[in-house]
Amino acid sequence: MRSSARRSGRGRRAATVGAVLAALVGVLATTSSAQAQGEWWEPTNPPAVESEVNVTGAPFTGTTSTGDVRGYIDAHTHMFSDEGFGGHAVCGATFSHAGVADALKDCDGHGVSLLENLTNSAKGAGPLDSHDTTGWPTFPEWPSYSSFTHQQMYYKWVERAWRGGQRVMVNDLVSNTGLCTILGIVAGPNEAPCDDMDAVRREARKTYELQDYVDAQYGGAGKGWFRVVTTPQQARSVIEQGKLAVVLGVEVSEPFGCKQVLGVAQCNKGDIDRGLDELKSLGVSSMFLCHKFDNALCGVRYDAGTTGLIVNVGQFLTTGTWWNPQPCKPGETPDNTVIGGVIPKELSVIPGLPALLPVYPTGPHCNPRGLSDLGEYALKGMMQRNMMVELDHMSAKAADRAFDVMEAGGYPGALSSHSWLAGTSTERLYQLGGFATQYGHSTGEYVADWQATRALRQKYGVGYGFGMDMNGFGGTPAPPADDTEKITYPFTSADGGAVLDRQRTGQRVWDYNVEGVAHYGMVPDWIESLRRKAGSAITDDLMAGAQSYLDTWTASATWAPGLNLARGSTASASSTEWTLLGRLKPSQAVDGSLSTRWASAWGSDSEWLRVDLATPRQVSRVTIDWEDAYASRYRVETSLDGSTWSAGATVTASNGGSDAVRIPTRSARFVRVVSEKRATKYGISIRELGVFS
């Protein structure tokens, strides 16, 4: 460990000289700002000493000739991770009222960081090796593209990204109870509680505090460039003004306390309702139902490799259960392959932790946990509150069920923000009206993925974006792999309105060609690298990203559940399974409750359920919530008289769960579902049948 209090006399003298130089840099920056008085994008009351932005030119404003907004979107990043994980994981603050020297100072107790050494593969350090924690003004080792545990989102660096063309940033409020617990043991006492919702509240408060801090530099409330938005209308207005629209999301492992311990849920529906209402009051617009751990709401898509090993340990510490990957069955989408084996000796100090992880079967692995009943309740609660649903990190089984539910309701608010959606589900997302972005990979990989998915985006007419996941322990783009990815300084932003030179903070100057995306201020440099590699087509797609995100958000915000014409109607069936209390009658498939159901007699493939709408109505969509006994092949038919039936649609490969079936819009009084092939040895059983105009 190395802190400023333990430096030698020579180190103190060097730091003093550095501080003097930094002060001179600050004076020059202040003078330059004073010369630019009257330009709305320049602060009128900046701190005396501050990081430079190194961008000249006015930010673009307004809309295109078609009324669309323009600008890049980062749909997944973590501006205040330093407030999460117990306060140990990320060294350095996003801002400080005491100034840059305080925000980006040396980190006491961070010289030997197990998390840093296990994740920073580029450095190649041993688990207990030390690293230089010196920050302002020299920054000898951080921030770096390969270092996950040092602040990369200081607010002036975010300002440079905005000046370079970014117009939307989704700030995901983040924490993880397991990692927090581990760090509290191996890195000293935590500075904050490990409760996920406590971290969400702290990070939300800090986001609004930063907005006020920036406003004060620009002359008062509402005048700064950093604008927290809670509706798509607010976001559009902010973007049209040329400012940065900051959207709040949530990515935690145990939302609302919804963990599972030994497989038993630790929350109930009341906790979920109160939690969702609180998030809405904080201004949160999107959320992950599960993240890293199998919780009470859903199973997760596993992490692979060493990261997966650490996360699996965290799951065990907080839930008492390890991940339970099973070999994937034919046709199933894998959830990444999990490693077992010996737990690193550095973690052996954790009380109650066994020496070995479970021995897992040969991959590819699938998580048998899907979306639980509580998870489905939470998902529908998000829909009722018009919140966008993040599908990344869900197991393939959970994501499939989430799609079923959203498709049944025609809900467009589906997001995949950083390349974690399993399999080929992206088209289902676009069909709903959702929005997807790719992880902020290094230039070559990002361009390859952009090219591979471009035809699908063109099919649905959507723009592109990135999920940089900065401060999220995933890593940022590495330096250019070859000359085709290198950039020349100064360069002009893709919109043509700004000129950017190498970014300088204190005595440190960063060059993308040497250091990749070391911090958030270098995102425009990376975009210039993408342009050099793939031409203006890629930046055109990125500039369309903000509008596509607003399209999804607007559709979600204005969504209302359609009138279910079948609710409470007269229902009949080909047969009914006998029970002593008669609880499986046809009427129980149209009573509005998923806890009741109709079931046919056992043994026949040709069973049907029919509803009478009382009068002819326009019908275009039928939804079916199956019980475990479902029909793998069935028909949806309509009739005006109950005798002559017209074909609506045939489903040939249902996998149960929730089905949403589109039929040609027509007038019908009667609608029925006719089984052609059972999926089980029993009959067929429907929890709820819906009919919609």
UniProtKB/TrEMBL annotation:
<dbReference type="InterPro" id="IPR000421">
    <property type="entry name" value="FA58C"/>
</dbReference>
<protein>
    <submittedName>
        <fullName>Discoidin domain-containing protein</fullName>
    </submittedName>
</protein>
<dbReference type="Pfam" id="PF00754">
    <property type="entry name" value="F5_F8_type_C"/>
</dbReference>
<keyword id="KW-0732">Signal</keyword>
<dbReference type="InterPro" id="IPR032466">
    <property type="entry name" value="Metal_Hydrolase"/>
</dbReference>
<feature type="signal peptide">
    <location>
        <begin position="1"/>
        <end position="36"/>
    </location>
</feature>
<dbReference type="InterPro" id="IPR008979">
    <property type="entry name" value="Galactose-bd-like_sf"/>
</dbReference>
<feature type="domain" description="F5/8 type C">
    <location>
        <begin position="558"/>
        <end position="693"/>
    </location>
</feature>
